[in-house]
């Protein structure tokens, strides 16, 4: 019997395509963008009037939650805005993790027209020299800094020169300020400065305007029809210092009358148990995660029928991003959802960057397996430009950044003559004859490399293929072999996995691969997990390939040594 698939809560795509003589492919949605407010604070006030008592944001307090309603958030953010204006604050920075107070401070800054800069907590808590934090502070020059959590930030605050910035650990005093008259905030004003991970150099400060955030949420409502059917409920851990969690997910609750429960767990062995504990308290309507997070969560859902059923009870879809979801994980999610509800669950994804606020492509079509990352959302134009034997995706629309704070040189380099943002990512059409079939992510151009034979290796696609065939034995792999004769792997094995199990998986992979660029010649199982402090795992929970290769150059040398080290798996 064919499994019943849950109805996808999406508007079907209607994509136009045009091919230039030079091989460039141009795509856009025929669905025009809808009118929308210039700032998402307008949505906050709308919901505060319509549903004043509905919870907007909540965080764990003891056995329950500290909850703030839409009406309370609107009132407190007005007070915070007045306090910032009275102080003449030019910009606001947050060092600590996701919290109710950080959300209120962000909304207050939005009302005041003051740029808000949430910084990865790792830069303050895990860094040894605070170099990235020093760079960000020099660029942003905050007038007020939120550092919640007592003495946790003492070392960073004592080491980094914050000049005359006011340091606060809560916003209650700010919120008590009499609001008075607040300024008019326009779409072109800076809402946030979000910093890229800086994994390959100094973090770049991406300017996010109010129009970028508001247009993204308007487009979401056009392609995700479920947002109009009921207010979304999220339990979410994704960090607000990144665009996925801070723009899309927090913005989703604010703009569409939803509730975001802050998950103080993480997809790490030490903190995944807290996420499971929180899921026992909240039944979400939407679930957002990265593949690593799903990989760590699924064993708990597979072992606990009650938790599984509660998770899928009201779920419209499971959304993954940040990396391609291995097919093995996809099938496990489907099996769990079908067991819980009798229907195959909907899985979906998108494509975007910090510079696109974040969604530029959305997979608002029925996906049956991993690969496709979406089609252009209403208002966004995508241009697929030939670069060697690949197509780089470039983007233009109301959600695209005007540039990088303090770096006009980088801004100029990042846009072409037509005003398209150059992403550095390669893509291809899933079906060249049907643009509605979607776009497939084809790797980061900067990650791909050549073998000594001159053959290109597509790192992203190869990594996904290896995890798909070896998923029971490996948690992730790093592809190596730049300027060498063959491809090798650094392997992060799952607990209990044996070298023979990994060898067997690689043998199955190689049997279907005729090309040297896709066959694996050697593999080395690493004896230490990815180091979060060293940047091998990002805040969003995915593996930083380049950083691992840089830090583990000695293991790369062992991988390719001749004669082969005894620990190296030679295929």
Task: Describe what you observe in this structure.
The chain has 571 residues and is of the alpha/beta class. Among the domains are: 15-34 and 354-444, Luciferase, Domain 3 (Luciferase, domain 3), CATH 2.30.38.10; 64-185, Rossmann fold; 449-570, GMP Synthetase, Chain A, domain 3. 33% of the residues lie in helices and 23% in strands. The protein has 19 helices and 28 strands. The strands form 7 sheets. Strands 1-2-19-20-21-22-18-17-16 form a 9-stranded antiparallel beta sheet. Strands 4-3-12-11 form a 4-stranded mixed beta sheet. A 4-stranded parallel beta sheet has the order 6-5-7-8, covered by helices on one side. Helix 2 (70-87) packs across helix 3 and helix 12 (291-303) crosses helix 13. The protein is globular. The model has no long low-confidence stretch (mean pLDDT 92).
List keywords for this structure.
globular, 571 residues, Rossmann fold, GMP Synthetase, Chain A, domain 3, alpha/beta, four-stranded mixed sheet, nine-stranded antiparallel sheet, Luciferase, domain 3
Dominant shape: globular
Q: Helicity range of the residues?
A: 25-40%
CATH topology of one domain: Rossmann fold
The CATH architecture classification of one domain is 3-Layer(aba) Sandwich
Please state roughly what percent of the residues sit in beta strands, choosing from under 5%, 5-15%, 15-25%, 25-35%, 35-45% or over 45%: 15-25%
- Round the Cα radius of gyration to an integer and report it: 23 Å
| Structural class determined from secondary elements | alpha/beta
- State the distance separating the first and last CA atoms: 40 Å
In total, the number of strands is 28
Rounded mean pLDDT score? 92
CATH class of one domain: Alpha Beta
What oligomeric state is this?
single chain
Largest sheet: 9 strands, antiparallel
Low-confidence runs: none
Q: DSSP helix count?
A: 19
Major β-sheet strand ordering:
1-2-19-20-21-22-18-17-16
């Amino acid at each position: 019997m064919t499994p019943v698939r849950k109805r996808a809560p999406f508007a079907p795509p209607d994509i136009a395509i045009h091919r230039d003589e030079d091989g460039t492919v141009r795509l856009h949605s025929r669905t025009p963008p809808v009118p929308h407010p210039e700032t998402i604070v307008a949505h906050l006030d709308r919901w505060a009037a319509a549903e004043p008592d509905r919870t907007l944001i909540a965080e764990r307090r003891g056995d329950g939650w500290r909850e703030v309603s839409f009406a309370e958030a609107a009132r407190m953010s007005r007070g915070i805005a007045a306090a910032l204006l009275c102080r003449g604050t030019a910009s606001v920075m947050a060092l600590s993790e996701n919290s109710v107070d950080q959300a209120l401070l962000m909304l207050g800054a939005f009302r005041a027209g003051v740029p808000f800069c949430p910084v990865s907590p790792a830069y303050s808590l895990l860094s040894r020299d605070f170099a990235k934090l020093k760079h960000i502070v020099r660029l942003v020059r905050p007038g007020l800094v939120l550092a919640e959590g007592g003495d946790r930030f003492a070392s960073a605050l004592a080491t980094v020169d914050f000049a005359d910035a006011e340091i606060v650990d809560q916003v209650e005093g700010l919120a008590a300020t009499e609001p008075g008259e607040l300024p008019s905030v326009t779409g072109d004003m800076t809402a946030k400065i979000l910093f890229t991970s800086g994994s390959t150099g100094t973090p770049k400060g991406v300017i996010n305007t109010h129009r970028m955030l508001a247009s993204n949420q308007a487009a979401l409502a056009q392609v995700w029809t479920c947002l109009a059917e009921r207010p979304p409920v999220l339990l979410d851990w994704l960090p607000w210092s990144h665009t996925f969690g801070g723009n899309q997910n927090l913005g989703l609750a604010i703009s569409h009358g939803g509730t975001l429960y802050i998950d103080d767990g993480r997809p790490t062995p030490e903190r995944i148990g807290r996420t499971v504990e929180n899921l026992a308290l909240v039944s979400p309507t939407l679930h957002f995660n990265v593949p690593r997070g799903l990989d760590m969560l699924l064993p708990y859902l597979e072992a606990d029928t009650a938790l599984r059923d509660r998770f899928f009870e009201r779920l419209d879809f499971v959304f993954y991003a940040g990396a391609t979801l291995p097919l093995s994980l996809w099938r496990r999610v489907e099996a769990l959802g079908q067991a819980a509800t009798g229907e195959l669950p909907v899985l979906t994804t998108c494509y975007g960057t910090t510079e696109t606020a974040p969604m530029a492509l959305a997979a608002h079509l029925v996906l049956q397996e991993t690969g496709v990352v979406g089609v252009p959302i209403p208002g966004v134009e995508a241009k697929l430009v030939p670069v060697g034997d690949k197509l780089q995706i470039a983007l233009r629309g109301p959600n695209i950044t005007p540039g990088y704070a303090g770096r006009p040189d980088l801004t100029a380099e990042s846009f072409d003559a037509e005003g398209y943002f150059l992403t550095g990512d390669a893509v291809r059409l899933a079906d060249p004859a049907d643009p509605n079939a979607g776009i497939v992510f084809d790797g980061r151009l900067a990650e791909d490399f050549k073998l000594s034979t001159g053959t290109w290796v597509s790192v992203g696609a190869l990594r996904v293929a290896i995890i798909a065939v070896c998923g029971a034995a490996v948690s992730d792999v790093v592809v190596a072999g730049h300027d060498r004769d063959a491809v090798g792997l650094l392997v992060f094995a799952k607990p209990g996995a044996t070298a023979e199990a990994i060898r067997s998986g690689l043998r199955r992979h190689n049997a279907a691969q005729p090309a040297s660029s896709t066959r694996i010649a050697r593999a080395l199982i690493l004896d230490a997990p990815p180091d979060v402090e060293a940047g091998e795992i990002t805040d969003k929970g995915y593996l930083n390939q380049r950083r691992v290769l840089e830090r583990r150059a000695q293991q790369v040398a062992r991988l390719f040594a001749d004669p082969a080290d005894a620990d190296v798996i030679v295929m």
